[in-house]
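User: Hey, quick favor. My workstation is busy. Could you predict this chain's structure for me?
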Amino acid sequence: MKRREFVAGLGGWVASPLAAKAQQHPIPVVGYLASTTRDAAPFQTASFRRGLDEAGFTESRNVLIEYRWSDDKPENLPGLAADLVNLKVNILAAFGTSSILAAKAATSSISIIFLTGDDPITAGVVSSLSRPSGNITGVTFNSAPLYSKRLELLRGLIPKNDLIALLIDPNSPESVTQSRNVQNVASKIGQAVISLNVTTESEIEGALGSLAQQRVDAFIVCGGPFFNGKRDLITALAMRHAIPGMYPNRNFAAAGGLISYGANIPVPIVRLALTSPAS
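Assistant: No problem, here it is.
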């Protein structure tokens, strides 16, 4: 998919015959599919709108955005994706692997653009990075390979690293993939790790509260939309329990976390909205 085709997908209606216009939306519509809550990641929606604006499309002026959030319930994503397809949106933007796969299953005709921290080939999103083909293309900041560096940095910062915990969202393909990478690296260097699966705020509170009792020296937060949306809670609990943590992106550090190593997430989101449909 070329960028000009993406722009045409949003703006081509201007040159359509009047009869065709009558059957379309008055202005182009972008479907926005995310697996978090509405308030979980305001930087994400703000960055996406900024990218659209830089491309010449301003929300409520010459483009509409139909937002759908699954509220941290991945089982809701297929229905939400189908709803956006039924609305006949011009473009469908999907955030996170679970949302992308739901969008891909819902349509083979509407253009899909995506953002993921996972390997899109391994996740089954595309068959090739250079030629994704079909109706889907996007941006990845594949962070699984970064976890060896994250583990190295964390071990160098803390005086004692006998036991490190991994915070994993089992509902997030990104989180699961990244946890495996950490475990593989840890086993090679003899680092003891324990895995804690969490899917709710109460489970986050319980997991962070249990680290001292388990004599955990530090923890690593695996990536994924759920944890991105809970960064304030996670960093506050880490400070309360005085447990150092390594985080997947700078938004956690900005919220008070000890250290992060990874992509500056708003940047690829802007790129997604602005240029990701380029080949």
